[in-house]
Hints:
This protein has helices at about 10, 15-20, and strands at about 25-30, 30-35, 40-50, 65-70. By secondary structure, the protein is mainly beta. The protein has a domain at about 20-70. It has a four-stranded antiparallel beta sheet with strand order 1-2-3-4, with no helix packed on it. The radius of gyration is 15 Å and the shape is extended. The chain starts with 8 loop residues before the first helix and ends with a strand.
Amino acid sequence: MILYTMMPQEQIFPEEQQEQSGQMMMSYKGIPVLAEQLDATSYQIVRVMSTDPSHYLDAECTPGAKISFS
């Protein structure tokens, strides 16, 4: 397979082990997200993993938002 692209190889074929260390899949208000743990009870959303377009419009569940579980 040949890819004709201007994008660097690291963006097309990312190294999964380094990028996803400390990240985990979870459900926040019924929306599947990939989140990174900041401390014992708080997480930061890295990516919304849902296929429902309405989940991407939720302002509380955007990448970079901090969420907490108690």
